[in-house]
Amino acid sequence: MAPLLEIRGVSKFFGGLAAVVDVSFRIDRGEIVGLIGPNGAGKTTLFNVINGFYRPSKGEILFKGKRISGLKPHQICRLGIARTFQVVKPLQRMTVLDNVIASAFLRSSSKREAVEKAEEILRFTGLYEDKDMLSRGLPLGKRKRLEIARALATDPELLLLDESFAGLNPTEQNESIEIIKKIKERGITILIIEHHMKVIMSISDRVVVLNYGEKIAEGSPDEVGRNPLVIEAYLGEAISA
Amino acid sequence: MRKYQPYIMLLLLLLLPLFGLSTYMMHILILVIMWSVIGMAWNLLGGYCGQVSFGHAAFFGVGAYTAGILYFKTGISAWWGLPLSVVIVAAEALIIGFICLRLRGPFFALATLAMGEVLRVTAENLRGFTQGALGILIKERTWVEKTWYYYIIVLIAVGAFVLVKKIIESKLGYYFVAIREDQDAAESLGINTTLYKTIALTISAVLTGIAGAFYTNYMGYIDPEIVFALHDISIITIMVVMVGGVATYWGPVVGAVIMVLLAELIRSLPRIGTAHQTLFGILLILIIIFLPNGIVGDYPKIKRILGFRRRVGTTS
Amino acid sequence: MDAVQVEVLLQTLIAGILLGGLYALIGIGMTLIMGVMKIINLAHGELMMVAMYLAYWLFVLFNIDPYLSVFIAAPLMFFFGMAIQKYLINPVLKVESILPENQVILTVGIGMVLANLATILFTSDYRSVPVEYASDAWYLSDFWRDSPVELSLSVPWSISFLFAVVITVALWFFLTRTDTGKSIRATAQDMDAAVLMGVNVERMRLITFGLGAALVGAAGCLFIPIYYLYPALGGRFTLIAFVITILGGLGSTVGAIIGGLILGIFESLTATYVGMGWAPVGRFAIFIAALIFLPGGVASILRRQRLGK
After folding, report:
1. In Å, what is the CA distance from A49 to each residue of A54, A65, A80, A87, C193?
2. For residue A119, is it within any domain?
3. Is A93 an 8 Å CB contact of chain C?
4. Contact between C109 and B100 using a beta-carbon 8 Å cutoff
5. Residue B307, pLDDT score
6. How many structural domains compose chain A?
7. Which helix (H) or strand (E) holds B222?
8. Structural domain that includes position A168
9. ipTM confidence score
């Protein structure tokens, strides 16, 4: 079977600067793949390329066997790839519920259906009690979760999570890990950028490591953890626990 | 009670002319309602979708000139300008949208401002088509009395109000607000931001254009300086919404009442009359600093300041 | 093309370049403010109008030459700009509102007040300053007897142009060689980084707005000997400044200079070959063309070439 997402030799240059260099890997259905690497390794840039904010300078991206590089972000989202942002972008002056309804409208123009869907997802992500709060009033942990809820409401097949754990306290982290596991049970494939090694190693089926824009390792969490290149890349950078 | 509010308003509006108001009062009422329509139109694009236009005169003027030129060139009643302006202004909005909507924030605002000015200068210079600065005079007025003009603009206003309300409560409305709050987030949630911004602009433009076509019929005279005016149309439009309340249903109506009455009041004062732009400018500055969400939007804040009621709950 | 046509074309180009130099000065002020504050100053032309009235009254009351009043009006405008920034714009930056464009609308309000006050104080009459050298000109035939074409160069236009060039060069030195100038550029490039580097951003904003006002004020004085003066001219020049800024690329000083020159030449060409009334349309045509075909302005071309090396 064709992989869900296939990244083929993707590079992204900004002027003369290479942010992503000739990266290739594939994601199969039902997997959780971790994308790690030191700061500035090009992880978020790669997300922006997958999700259509940037056009790859070289290479191509296939989703379910079809080329998606060059499409607009909203088209890519409609095809079934949703993302969250590292720097959360809640629709500030909308309530939590309205935030999710706005996403749910992607698959249904009926308001009743959109509301039902949104409420279901808020229960699923544990945000239901906060549904009438303005989203800018939420604490960071819940805003991060709102990002996930919003992405889920678009009914994705592939979910791109960009540092959904950064800045969370241990309790919130555990809650989020549970949510991600539940998302996997729903049959949604996940590509996750994460700095917390503990988190990434515990939930990922496979890990891809970027350094200076290049892929330096790929494999199971264990293999990658033992890879000398990876250890070297992380030397000097404090790995936040 | 709240549920019936619009119906009570409607009934009141329909009955008003029966009270035998003076011609001047009727004139003021018509102006207030016309400005409400323009305000609602602007609010849909600016308040809800977050695309602040400084050039709504471009749509008002084209609507007005559609009616005027139709009458002047073909002799057909200028009232046909109302339906015709829908088509023409929609086409205009698509073109302007194509050019301006690629810009964000203040740059969009200024590009639309430039569009308004382009059209004004064009209308002044295309003398063969628009009569230039001479303007167009509608010689045969439909009615001497104001009552029918009043009912027509009330009909337009009610239509606009219902349309805006329906839109805001639907998928379109959610998408508009999402675009206002964060374009990148909206785009990545599957919202075709270019398409929906264009839709918002087109609806807003068409409503404004209809108001313009009505203006031609009602006032009986237009020229480029009047209907494409930067300050007296585009900026006043923004003020109507800002004073009344950005992104609120009733804001444009409240704003129109205040702005029209204020304009009339200032004009009637001896000596101060020439300073009306200064006073408007100062009002604008004060509103932005102290009531950035307008009278309706900042109503809780006003109540609190005036001490009508103890603070009940928090708004944000 | 016969000699007359060549003459007309050359004369038009010269007029365009001279006008463009002054436009550049107006554009630089706007682009500086845009770069540092990320807001568009829609009272820019009105500030120029204020400076022009200053120069006008300095001439009428004290017989001070408009070129000398640059040295009086520009500093005064500097403080006037700082006051506007401090007491009007700064408070709004802190106000939470639905529309971020509030700041721009605020400057519209300021512009309205200034223009209207000028009308009340000075009436809407057109005025001009009767300097003796107003219609002096140099002729090419005076220098080169057998020249095949006859060109003239207006004395006040040339002096104004030279002033504009000198001010621009001085500004360039200020921005690249002084600490304050460097801090301003740092703030424009990356405000957060500038804060981390210890730049007093609040102060840079004040200085920048003052500087923008002073530049456009200087431009106003330079326009006095060659142009009329009336309260509503501010709106026109605000639009011109904005068009230049878009043409040049937002926040780019070099872009603003090139944009000013392009606009000046283009307007001069439209006025000669299409008709005076159409000059504003030409201005907007080039503006719209820039929006569609060159969204980043001239600056994006400059940048592309630098990276290409």
Report:
1. 5, 17, 15, 17, 26
2. no
3. yes
4. no
5. 67
6. 1
7. strand B221-222
8. 5-90+140-234
9. 0.90
